[in-house]
Design brief:
Largest sheet: 6 strands, antiparallel, barrel
Helix content: 10-25%
Family: Belongs to the peptidase S1 family.
Protein name: Streptogrisin C
Strand content: 35-45%
CATH class of the largest domain: Mainly Beta
CATH architecture of the largest domain: Beta Barrel
Radius of gyration: 22 Å
GO molecular function: serine-type endopeptidase activity
InterPro entries: Pept_S1_alpha_lytic (IPR004236), Pept_S1A_streptogrisin (IPR001316), Peptidase_S1_PA (IPR009003), Peptidase_S1_PA_chymotrypsin (IPR043504), Streptogrisin_prodomain (IPR035070), Trypsin_dom (IPR001254)
Keywords: Disulfide bond, Hydrolase, Protease, Serine protease, Signal, Zymogen
Length: 480
């Protein structure tokens, strides 16, 4: 039988609390010594504003841990894996298992366990069954997605087509017990109408750059067809797919330099360290030329969105509660420092109330076009970041050891290396007149970090933090 519930699309954004997270000794010491750095971080500010996070720094640390736990749990559980999601209220990763005997393996990975009826593979098969008959879906169905916490596939629909939707699901041949019907008046549209800052132009539209890749950038497929030219930056669409997918690769002209960073619309950039997938329930922040920088949470990593009979559907999208507006299409979606997707479309806006935005996942785009993501060092090889200094890291350290350096406008670059089996993080901070504000960071799971940042003139410093472990470090850096 079908289950009915109110649509998440018409609910307010859920406030996230960060209480109860135990920081490592080094991290606690770092926050105590330098509270101003977290307060000035644009991602931290957006998480407070959009998610109501009371301790965004602790939330980000918990989400980083959750990504690693998710990776280990998936490898350990195989076919008994029933999906995973981040419980933001308690800041833990919950893993579903279809066999109670698999629970110890999930707990050993660091997850909380919930026994569920369906494996992730089974949920994916149910959604694939609906995708196969997508052309039969009645008008008034804005989309469907895998709801991991609910262990069902949710089909959203307008109230007046409830009976038609039931008939459509029955004709699909999927298990109706695995389908939940949710009333929704959402109607998504591609976000291509208005041009704002941090954009690029085609002959028809203004869209937003997604992520830099070697040779160009990735963006949304509905922004341009193969062969269409772009300006600011200049280039040409070398690959494009829409609908079904919403992805494109723009090969840029000589003189355009791809940088592994995202505009935070607060005068700085957020470094991109990779494209590791974040679990359902974790925060995600997006950047676009119309509405700037906004955050939400990941609702599903396997959603189908219907843009209407004249446009078509996009499958296997990331569905989120982040807001976006026309002109944000193609823009970046990032969780922590990990690239997640490029903006496809959505409903609502950033002026208040509920919003839903969909993203084309980054890994699929990279694979489709055979391109490589540009990360925070812009492709600089190890040993090529500049002048080297050494020291011993226990807790936090500052370079230069004199406390700071004055720099004109330009690019700052650094590479940090430390001992094996440790986790060292690197932050570039700028003095704002009253406190040190983090403007760029490298926070991967190892002791090797690379950061590139282009900013205005001022007083800067590099802060090193031992997230776990301690020992000798080497920091190579270049100033403007």
């Amino acid at each position: 039988m079908f289950r009915l519930r109110s649509s998440p699309a018409v609910m307010s954004v859920v406030a996230v609390t960060a209480a109860g997270v135990l920081l490592s000794g080094a991290q606690a010491q770092a926050e105590a010594q330098d509270p101003g750095s977290a307060n000035g971080d644009p991602m931290v500010a957006a998480l407070r504003r959009d998610l109501g996070a009371t301790d965004p720094a602790a939330l980000l640390a918990a989400e980083r841990t959750a990504r690693e736990v998710d990776r280990v749990a998936r490898q350990a559980l195989h076919r008994t894996f029933g999906g995973s999601w981040f419980d933001a209220d308690r800041e833990v990763l919950v893993v579903g298992v279809t066999d109670p005997s698999a629970a110890p393996a999930a707990r050993a990975a660091g997850a909380e366990v919930r026994v569920v009826a369906r494996a992730e593979e089974e949920l994916g098969a149910v959604k694939a069954g609906l995708d196969r008959v997508a052309g039969w879906a009645p008008d008034g169905v804005p989309g469907w997605y895998v709801d991991v916490p609910g262990n069902v596939v949710v089909v959203k629909h307008r109230p007046e087509v409830n009976r038609q939707v039931r008939d459509w699901v029955a004709r699909s041949g999927v298990d109706p017990g695995a389908v939940e019907l949710v009333e929704s008046r959402e109607r998504a549209r591609p976000l291509i109408d208005v041009v704002g800052g941090n954009r690029y132009w085609t002959s028809k539209y203004g869209c937003s750059v997604g992520f830099s890749v070697v040779g160009g950038f990735i963006t949304a497929g509905h922004c341009g067809d193969v062969g269409e030219t772009t300006t600011q930056p200049g280039g040409r669409f070398a690959g494009s797919s829409f609908p079904v997918d919403d992805m494109a690769f723009v090969r840029t002209d000589p003189g355009n330099t791809p940088i592994g960073a995202v505009n935070d619309y607060n005068g700085g950039r957020v470094a991109v360290a990779g494209s590791q997938e974040a679990p359902v329930g974790t925060s995600i922040c997006r950047s676009g030329g119309t509405s700037g920088w906004h955050c939400g949470t990941i609702r599903s990593r396997n959603a189908t969105v219907d843009y209407g009979p004249s446009i078509g559907k996009v499958y296997e999208a990331i569905e989120t509660t982040a807001c976006a507006e026309p002109g944000d299409s193609g823009g970046s979606a990032i969780s922590g420092n990990q690239a997640q997707g490029v903006t496809s479309g959505g409903s609502g806006d950033c002026k208040g109330g509920a919003a839903t935005t969909y993203f084309q996942p980054v890994p699929e785009i990279l694979t489709r076009y055979g391109v490589t993501l540009v990360t925070s060092d812009g492709g600089t090889p190890p040993g090529g970041c500049g002048t080297a200094v050494t020291g011993n890291l226990q807790g936090t350290a500052v370079e230069p050891k004199s406390g700071y350096y004055e720099a004109p406008a330009g690019t700052h670059k650094a590479c940090l290396t430390g001992p094996a089996n440790t986790d060292f993080d690197l932050y570039l901070q700028k003095w704002d007149g009253s406190s040190w504000r983090t403007v760029a960071s490298g926070t991967g799971p190892t002791s090797t970090e690379k950061v590139t940042y282009t900013g205005t003139s001022g007083r800067y410093r590099w802060q090193l933090r031992a997230y776990s472990g301690s020992g000798q470090y080497t920091l190579e850096s270049t100033r403007p």
